[in-house]
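Hey, quick one: can you model this chain's 3D structure?
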Amino acid sequence: MELMHHYSTVTADTFAIRPDMQYVWRTIVPEMGHRSSFVTHGILAVAAQHKAHLLPGLRDKYLDMAAYHQMLGMEGFRAALSNVNHNNWKHTFTFSSTIVIYVCSLLGRVDEPGANPIPDILKLFVLVRGLRTTLLLHDAQLGGTELAPLSHGVWILGEQDDSLYENDTSPNYSRLPQGIFDALRHLSTFFSTHLPESSKGDYEVAVNHLRKAAKLIAHAGTRVEIGMVMFFPYVIPENIIADIQAANPYALLLLSYFALLLKVMENQFWYIRGWPTRLWAAADEQAKNYPKVKKMIQWPKEEALKLYRH
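Sure thing. Here's the predicted structure for all 310 residues.
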């Protein structure tokens, strides 16, 4: 009862900024839990994580509770995932969203300084991609359901029409750095100049998705939603995932710009705290012997520092 009360009165509203999205998390998602116990366990897991975040002195206690509910939730989720259908797809979609929050929070902060972050980066990216692939067919139906705000609140410019993302948007009314779009163009040129021909296309696609995320953030102003950035792990080409696994410095350079977009909203979403720092640590480590890459990494890190000077 304690965790469900905390979820309904506090945690649910931390997952989104828009009132319609908050309503989904606060009211619709618990209602789904009444019909699917694994959704309830997902709710209780993230509520316990939030308590661990708020009460450092009781952190271990609440992290243990979170792990317990996550384990029970995963058992039911795996069973449902083997037969996703018209009757249960909304429940699997909802639980998958709590999984991403759970993993983000769990892996964003580590107690061991200097721990290699690349395995955790891969875990998060592979998780997001796997869930997205499994639920992709039903995701198209989201717009006609009570879960629609979770999509509409993110894709405020539309998801499929690339022409809407062609022109730069003023970042003046957001926390984005002034030079973000010029910096992304410079990043694209850098990849085009230094990467082998076989990799250039994939990295160009990835930078275009970062640009799309930046445009969404610029249009949202102060009402940014985490999904405006977290779509990135499931849209980047598979070859870049392989490059991340291989600790390719160019892949980590790409992630250093992704980290800047996360940093813009880090203070608003507790469960991503720590991720930008971990991504930059990984990029710095892999760029030690690549001075040109190391120089490119400096811009997003310097711009992140400026976010806290205002």
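One thing worth noting: The mean pLDDT is 89.
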